[in-house]
Amino acid sequence: MTTSPLERAADSFAAELARHRTGRGLTKKQLATLMGFDPSYVSHVEGRRHRPTEDFARRAEAVLDAGGVIWQCFREYDQLRQARAVPGQREPTPPGGGSRRAPGSSSNRRPPPSPWSTAPTGA
Q1: Is the pLDDT of residue 82 over 50?
Q2: What's the rounded Cα separation, in Å, for the pair 73 and 30?
Q3: CA angle at residue 94 from 93 to 99, to 5 degrees?
Q4: Of 49, 50, 55, 48, whose CA–CA distance to 16 is shortest?
């Protein structure tokens, strides 16, 4: 399965956060305490169930003394996320993409999930 640049950037941020956290010998709870965040939020960001905020990325970078790696991963992710949200810009239709509905028709379809909505699947 091909992943989008946004999904790859999300994966990269979560992986670098986990790599630096474990490299410092910290648990998610310990990192959360040092950063001033709830432990479940750190866990959810690492598991890609929640998107990181700029504040979260800055604090993680500072606490983990990551040499700019975590901050750079966040900036790459955030730039791709913002580019995707530009009004008038549309993402390509996925393979087997659904038909377009006529204006005004109702749809029970949900919007596509963000790259942070589910945990990544194993390789």
Answers
A1: yes
A2: 22
A3: 60
A4: 48
HEC letters along 60-87: HHHHHCCCCHHHHHHHHHHHHHHHHCCC
Residue 102 exposure: Cα atoms within 13 Å on the Cβ side: 1
SS3 106: coil
Number of other residues whose CB lies within 10 A of the CB of residue 20: 20
Say how many C-beta atoms besides its own lie within 10 A of residue 105's C-beta. Answer: 7
In single-letter form, the type of residue at position 71 comes to W
Assigned token pair, 115:
């790259």
pLDDT for residue 32 is more than 50: yes
Alpha carbons within 13 angstroms on the beta-carbon side of residue 25 total: 0
Q: What is the rounded CA–CA span in Å between residue 36 and residue 47?
A: 19
**pTM of the entire predicted model:** 0.69
Helix (H) or strand (E) holding 55: helix 54-64
